[in-house]
């Protein structure tokens, strides 16, 4: 039986897309190979958001060039953000690759497998198997925002939403496999639907999904603050299966830096948005993203970001040091002039500050009982997440994967909670 290996780096979108491709290859009769070297067909699902990620892709393509020489029948497929609009140019540069396809271009993939005689009929690609009770469902590809530092709109293209009925059908299919939680994915999920004929929006989709039996929880990420409408916030507040957790990247706490980033909002507008969300959903937990060391960022501008983090008290902060991406507006226009040691210092400061805030926020869970959807077992402990997206560890003698379990929290840290089982359903 032929074997495949899928090499994936990058965001949750890539991981979800790799699962879909794996399901399709399973359907075609392929088996999973234990390593890239032992496969008959390799898919690279790539990320180029950071230069280091692109370097890994180039390194793996180099390795595959050698493998292809040894095994000329090896099929090499490349997808993800590495595949830009100049596919002919990519073909010339990487002659070892048999097929390049853009993220989510599944019809092209199925056509290619037919052309190669790997499949005999057109077959829809769907998530036929889900290894976890929590599944990721891409609902929108691409981004229309063009933040100055970001390569995504150039590689993934403009926003394209999946039809509402198709998403609902897919989620219903996942329910049959025991999935209880879905996370709707996209580069900017609140923008969902504007390109579809009947203009449904994310609030409409959430309402439809909320009525599906046996589905326990719905999440979505990631979200541009400008597209978080009042209607969407109200839908989140009123639909019982939509979890009280939101990822809302701010990127900087300084207006001039936000302008240079072309984020399209001011700190005060973001502050007002958070106030509205906390008013409608008081128990909301919030995550954000921060870039430190953006070109020209002064000490004072960085301090504005630190103070904003102290004021907002996010549950989670993902922080990254700026690195220029060729092909972006910032890469062309701005000099990367914050020294690496200053970037590192600022990054460490944000991490330390956030660890203290998260430790305080999480300590409030001590003594409380929370509902946990159990995702699996690791080193003798079961783990899952609360509706607020806190990771919880606990001991239990029976397998309770996929169950909603009541856990009384006894210990907390900035990163996780630990407790004892109450009762399940
Ligand atoms: S919203 Fe900005 S950062 Fe996010 S994917 Fe779009 S362009 Fe990139």
Task: Sum up the structure in keywords.
single chain, 425 residues, alpha/beta, 13 helices, 36% helix, binds iron/sulfur cluster
Q: Report helical residue fraction.
A: 25-40%
Instruction: Return residue spans where pLDDT drops below 50 for at least 5 consecutive residues.
Output: none
For the termini, the CA-CA separation is: 41 Å
- Rough shape? globular
Helix-and-strand structural type: alpha/beta
Instruction: Tell me about the largest β-sheet.
Output: 5 strands, parallel
Q: Tally the beta strands.
A: 17
The hetero molecules present are:
iron/sulfur cluster
Order of helices and strands: EHEEHEHEHEHEHEHEHEHHEHEHHEEEEE
Mean pLDDT rating: 94
Number of helices: 13
- Within the largest sheet, what's the order of strands? 2-1-3-4-5
Radius of gyration: 22 Å
Strand percentage, roughly? 15-25%
Structure description:
The protein is α/β, with parallel strands linked by helices and 425 residues long. It contains 13 helices and 17 strands. It has a 5-stranded parallel beta sheet, with helices on both faces. The protein has a 5-stranded mixed beta barrel with strand order 13-14-15-17-16. Iron/sulfur cluster (SF4) binds next to α5.
In short:
The chain has about 425 residues and is an alpha/beta fold. It has 13 helices and 17 strands. It has helices at about 10-25, 50-70, 85-95, 105-115, 150-155, 165-175, 200-210, 230-240, 255-260, 265-280, 300-310, 330-335, 340-365; strands at about 5-10, 30, 40-45, 75-80, 100, 135-140, 160, 180-185, 215-220, 245, 285-290, 315-320, 370-380, 380-385, 390-395, 405-410, 415-425.
């Amino acid at each position: 039986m032929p074997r495949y290996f899928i090499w994936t780096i990058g965001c949750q979108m890539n991981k979800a897309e790799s699962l879909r491709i794996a399901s399709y290859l399973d359907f075609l009769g392929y088996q999973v190979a234990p390593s890239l070297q032992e496969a008959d067909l390799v898919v690279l699902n790539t990320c180029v958001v950071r230069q280091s990620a692109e370097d890994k892709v180039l390194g793996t393509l180099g390795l595959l060039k050698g493998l292809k020489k040894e095994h000329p029948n090896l099929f090499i497929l490349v997808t993800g953000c590495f595949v830009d609009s100049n596919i002919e140019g990519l073909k010339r540069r990487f002659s070892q690759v048999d097929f390049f396809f853009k993220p989510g271009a599944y019809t092209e993939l199925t056509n290619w497998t037919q052309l190669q005689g790997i499949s005999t009929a057109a077959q829809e690609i769907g998530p036929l198997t889900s290894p976890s009770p929590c599944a990721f469902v891409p609902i929108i590809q691409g981004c229309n925002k063009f933040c100055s530092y970001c390569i995504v709109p150039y590689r993934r293209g403009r926003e394209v939403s999946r039809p509402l009925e198709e998403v609902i059908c897919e989620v219903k299919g996942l329910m049959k496999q025991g999935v209880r939680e879905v996370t709707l994915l996209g580069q900017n999920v609140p923008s969902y639907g504007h390109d579809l004929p009947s203009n449904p929006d994310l609030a409409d989709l959430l309402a439809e999904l909320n009525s599906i039996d046996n589905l326990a929880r719905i999440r979505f990420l990631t979200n541009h603050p400008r597209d978080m409408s009042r209607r969407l916030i109200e839908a989140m507040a009123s639909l019982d299966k939509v979890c009280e957790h939101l990822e809302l990247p701010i990127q900087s706490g300084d207006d001039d830096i936000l302008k240079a980033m072309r984020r399209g909002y001011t700190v005060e507008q973001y502050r007002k948005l958070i106030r509205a969300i906390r008013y409608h959903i008081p128990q909301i937990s919030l995550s954000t993203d921060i870039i430190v060391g953006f070109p020209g960022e002064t000490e004072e501008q960085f301090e504005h970001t630190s103070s904003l983090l102290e004021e907002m008290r996010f549950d989670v902060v993902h922080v990254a040091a700026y690195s220029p991406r060729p092909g972006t507006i910032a890469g062309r226009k701005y000099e990367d002039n914050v020294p690496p040691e200053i970037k590192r210092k600022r990054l460490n400061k944000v991490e330390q500050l956030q660890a203290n805030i998260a430790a305080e926020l999480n300590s409030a869970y001590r003594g409380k009982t929370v509902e946990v959807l159990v995702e699996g077992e690791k080193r003798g402990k079961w783990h899952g997440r609360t509706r607020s997206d806190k990771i919880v560890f606990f001991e239990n003698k029976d397998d309770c994967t996929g169950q909603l379990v009541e856990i009384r929290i006894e210990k907390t840290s900035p990163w996780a909670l630990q407790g004892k089982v109450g009762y399940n359903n």
